[in-house]
Specification:
Elements lengths: L1 H16 L16 E7 L7 E6 L10 E2 L4 E6 L4 E8 L2 E3 L12 E10 L2 E7 L2 E2 L6 E12 L8 E11 L7 E13 L9 E7 L4 E4 L7 E10 L10 E9 L2 H17 L14 E3 L7 E7 L2 E8 L12 H4 L2 E4 L12 E3 L10 E5 L24
Parallel strand pairs: 1-18
Antiparallel strand pairs: 1-2, 2-3, 2-6, 4-5, 4-7, 5-6, 7-8, 7-9, 8-17, 10-11, 11-15, 12-13, 12-14, 12-16, 16-19, 20-22, 21-22
Length: 380
């Protein structure tokens, strides 16, 4: 029972700090409904349009990629660009041919082949608005709990953002971010002792300055990192992307944000009441979910190497250590259900091997990669 409890605790931590499910909203309708996820920017690189169909409630799969479609993006000067299917339901641009240009307007065209028949979908033209740079990205330590003088503090990290547009041209903003943090297994277990974990934001961050005299945002609370994960134990980095929105898209994200606050999360069931800017040309009764976004993009990175009290440690002996045995002991069935955490070379007498039932306690690649990111030392 003790071993089962340890495995449960470690699995729970992985769920808290684990991967983020992609955004494929579902509908209460039984029939398939097209779901569109598209974003084109002014940055070099591949742009993607993801097409899927919503699944009936109770279905074991939350997504059903829509393959075999003909997808193009056209602009307001008559150019058209084909997005080829790079994987099931994902349609990608050729970066050598297409890159968004600020001031141009873009229209998405989809010719689908689905279970409900062939249909033609389009958006109205969407202008790519300029976006200002992020002025600053910074953090404050926050005391989560300080019950008494004899109990260690519990601290978290609140990340803030400042930005402004002196031309007052960008009054609607949206932010996404990618987190990366370093993890260390506190046992001598070369080679997979140090790894890096990466996670994408799963929240809606939007802000409008339309009602303000000045297009300026100060101390926007972008994200709070609590002590319930190990993000802050060593070194942490956050890369923030800032997007410019038109008013229609801002209202889309605002309504979606209101829905997620009511149902509990961005990846819960999204009702079809949240409008899309994609419509079916040949059958106006066809519903569409999702949005085709056109936005300029600016980015900024922040590193955090501070020390935060009370941060959880997923590698304590209570969780990881199942047993200890003599260094010379012959242990059967290794790499089946038991992984060894050992010192190499063996320590001075008395020496022993530490055994664990949890692979992640002896191999950090269970959670991340042992390849250091290219940007990891950019703060030096």
């Amino acid at each position: 029972m003790k071993i089962i409890f340890k495995i449960f605790l470690f699995t729970l931590l992985l769920l808290i700090t684990g991967c983020v499910t992609q955004f494929f909203p579902e509908t209460t309708e039984d029939k398939d409904i097209l779901v569109v996820e598209g974003l084109i920017t002014d940055q070099p690189g591949v742009n993607t349009i993801k097409l899927s169909t919503s699944m009936p409630l109770g279905n074991s799969s939350s997504k059903k990629p829509m393959s075999g479609c003909f997808v193009t993006v056209s602009d307001d000067i008559g150019s058209a660009y084909i997005f080829h299917e790079s994987s099931p339901g994902t349609y990608s641009s050729d970066p050598a041919v297409f890159q968004g240009i600020i001031g141009r307007s873009y229209t998405l065209h989809i010719n689908s082949v689905g279970t409900s028949g062939n249909h033609i979908y389009e958006t109205y033209p969407v202008e790519m608005k300029a976006v200002p740079p992020i002025d600053s990205l910074y953090y404050d330590k926050v005391v989560i709990a300080n019950p008494d003088p004899w109990t260690p503090l519990k601290e978290g990290c609140q990340i803030y953002l400042n930005t402004h547009d002196h031309s007052n041209g960008c009054q609607f903003y949206r932010w996404e971010f990618t987190e990366t943090w370093e993890i260390h297994i506190p046992y001598p277990i070369p080679p997979n002792k140090v790894c890096w974990v990466t996670d994408n934001s799963d929240m809606i961050n939007i802000k409008s300055t339309a009602a303000l005299e000045e297009d300026r945002i100060n101390r926007y609370p972008l994200d709070f990192i609590s002590n319930t994960s190990d993000r802050l134990r060593s070194k942490y980095s956050i890369l923030v992307s800032q997007y410019s929105l038109n008013e229609d898209e801002y209202q889309y994200w605002e309504k979606l944000q209101n829905v997620t606050e009511q149902v509990g999360g961005l990846y819960d069931i999204i009702p079809a009441a949240v409008p899309s800017n994609v419509s079916c040309i040949d059958d106006p009764t066809q519903r569409v979910l999702g949005y085709f976004s056109v936005s300029a993009k600016s980015t900024r990175r922040l590193f955090v190497k501070d020390r935060f009290s009370g941060t959880v440690n997923p590698y304590t002996d209570d969780i990881c250590v199942s047993d200890t045995v003599s260094w010379s002991a012959n242990i059967p069935n290794l790499n089946v259900s038991v992984w060894i955490i050992m010192e190499n070379p063996p320590p001075a007498s008395p020496s022993y091997k530490v055994l664990t039932m949890i692979k992640g306690c002896a191999d950090c690649t269970v959670r991340g990669t042992n390849i250091e990111p290219d940007f990891w030392n950019d703060d030096k």
